[in-house]
Amino acid sequence: MTRTLSISLEKMELFLFIYESLSSSAHYLATSVSIVIIIVILVYYFSRPRCTYLIDFSCYQPPDYLRVPIPNFIEHLEISGVFGRESLDLQRKVLERSGIGDEACVPVSVHEIPPDSSFSAATAETQEILFTVVKDLLSKHRIDPASIDIIVSNCSLFCPTPSITSMIINRFGLRRDIKSFSLSGMGCSAGLLSINLVRDLLKVHCNSLALVLSMEAVSPNGYKGKSKPMLIANTIFRMGGAAILLSNRKQDKHSAKYKLKHLVRTHLGSDNESYESVMQQNDEEGRVGVSLSKQLVMVASRALKINVMELGPRVLPYPEQLKYMGSLIPRRWGRARTYMPNFKKAFQHFCIHAGGRAIIEGVEKHLKLGKEDGEASRMTLYRYGNTSSSSLWYELQYLEAKARVKRGDTIWQIGFGSGFKANSAVWQCISELNPKDRNAWSDRIHLYPVRGDAQVP
Questions:
Q1: How many C-beta atoms surround the C-beta of residue 153 within 10 A?
Q2: 71-75, 202-206, 230-234, 339-343: least confident range
Q3: Rounded CA gap, 324 and 318, in Å?
Q4: Which of 154, 221, 349, 439 is flagged as catalytic?
Q5: Residue 188 bears catalytic tag
Q6: Are strands 209-215 and 410-417 parallel, antiparallel or unpaired?
Q7: Is 141 a catalytic residue?
Q8: Per annotation, catalytic residue among 59, 155, 196, 353
């Protein structure tokens, strides 16, 4: 009996030892798993890409006395005494078909006869535009200039020393350790290139504010020769510019207007036809101008197609992606055309670079968009002309002024530029926008869209 009891006690002790060991192991395992989970969460939280928020932006509104109605523009060309009859007729023809209305403006220097293309005139134009939009943007949000961490400017054909960003730093008293970048020679798509650069910088610089400045100087770039491809640029570019305030700070999430979702860049510079489609060069008489080739629309279409192929899988719903992939199989055997996805299922709004009527119509045709989808682009071209890299921001302000952008909406900005480049930026609205907030369209938004030959049927 004593032996049996002893064996039973030994078994109980063994069971208790095993139980305590298992309990201790389970506790240790649970603790270890918890620590691993916490570490994984922390690593994910701190290593995940930081969001790029668009707090707000400001577009330059030229005063009315700088307007150049088409008849006045043509008269100005005639009395300047620079052009022969053939060159005048070509520019008149392009102007009348350009889609640009009578409210588009040029700087004071271009109103002069002969136009003043001096360095001082270009500097005055640049400062007038950028000083105005930066002041408006910072004062509206009560931003201390000393809080700006990054500043990026883009102006393709005017590259002064000190740089354009230095002008802003000097004028507004920005910090001595500010990260400053001035981009030049990158064409009308440089606005989105600047956004791309800022996005990459914000990935490595925490809690930072960035200021982007986009414009093109008209004053120094008038062409006075006889080359037809160079004369076209005289007729379509107008005065304008924009300042954009970006951030990756958490406290700006609730005050920002938009969040950057995607940015895709395409560069066809390795192809000679694309490379030469927009080029600054000398004509036969040594005069400098920007040449726009006859193949420009075709080149833009090719660049857009490549850009869309990369962007599509990131934004399109799966049914549209499957239709597109399915169309590639019969196409390989020459039996069918590639299916163009319905991008209206991914985007509520489209901002197409207002480079000209042909560009806007070409994109609408390629993407199978309706006239209403290109309305913001057409109206921007009509009122402001081609303002180069800043045109996309005038278009977005048009949509805001029309109270069309709602919280949760996505906007596709499509930019084109020399090189040849096609760039896409996708923004998501993350705030309730107030259409009564004053912007460049506020004074006359009730007059748009215009009818008839000015774009909207």
A1: 26
A2: 339-343
A3: 10
A4: 349
A5: yes
A6: unpaired
A7: no
A8: 353
Sheet-wide strand order for 179-183: 179-183, 150-154, 209-215, 241-247, 53-59, 258-267, 421-429, 410-417, 349-352
Per-residue model confidence (pLDDT) at position 455: 45
The one catalytic residue among 196, 386, 423, 439 = 386
Question: Is 349 a catalytic site residue?
Answer: yes
Among 144, 184, 182, which Cα is nearest to 163's?
182
Alpha helix (H) residue ranges in 48-157: 70-79, 85-97, 108-111, 119-140
One of 3.30.70.3270, 3.40.47.10, 3.40.50.2000, 1.20.120.550 is the CATH number of 53-431, namely 3.40.47.10
Helix boundaries (H) for 210-280: 228-236, 272-275
Residue 6 pLDDT: 55
Q: Which of 188, 234, 248, 423 is catalytic?
A: 188
Q: Residue 307: how many CB atoms within 10 A of its CB?
A: 22
353 catalytically annotated = yes
Q: What is the pLDDT of residues 257-268, one digit of tens each?
A: 999 999 999 999
State yes or no: is 386 an active-site residue: yes
What is d(CA 129, CA 375) in angstroms, rounded to the nearest whole number? 25
Contacts of 227 by beta carbon, 8 Å cutoff, 6+ apart: 283, 284, 289, 291
Our CA dihedral for 274, 278, 280, 285, rounded to 10 degrees, sits at 100
**Rounded CA separation 72/400 (Å):** 31
pTM score, whole prediction: 0.87
The catalytic residue among 59, 105, 267, 307 is: 267
pLDDT in tens, 98-154: 999 999 999 999 999 888 999 999 999 999 999 999 999 999 999 999 999 999 999
At 433, the amino acid letter reads L
Say what the pLDDT of residue 134 is: 98
DSSP structure string for 352-402: E--S-HHHHHHHHHHHT--TTTTHHHHHHHHHH-B-GGGHHHHHHHHHHHT
